[in-house]
Write a structure and sequence with these properties.
Helix content: 55-70%
Strand content: under 5%
Distance between the termini: 33 Å
Order of helices and strands: HHEEHHHHH
Largest sheet: 2 strands, antiparallel
Number of strands: 2
Shape: globular
Radius of gyration: 15 Å
Length: about 130
Amino acid sequence: MKPVRRMATRMGVLGATLLMATGLAAPQASAESGYLAACTAQVGTRWASNGWPVPAVDLARGSRGDCVRALQWALVRTAFVSSSDAPTFIDGDFGPKTEAAVLRFQSTYPQQTGGPDGIVGVKTWGYLLPAAEG
């Protein structure tokens, strides 16, 4: 990579990181519940292939905590879980209901998510979060 391009890339990443940290901008800043911010504060971020910052953690059945709450919030926002079920669905426990919703999402968008496997990795995060924010 040429020095100028490398510096521009570093500055872009640094700028996005600073904006996320301050909450001034970035796709994640509008998460109503704050679960996504709490999740990324705990585990950090990585970049999906579409350029979105996503949590630096893979989730699967048995996972617990704020990152699971962020996932559950996104599934409600994308209507893969009814909003009327949100109060009991967003519990921070990746159980059978969360797994079923993840599988529905992955089955609906197999090319973007890598296919239905029930694991929320960088591809699934990278497609789910922009959909939830939209």
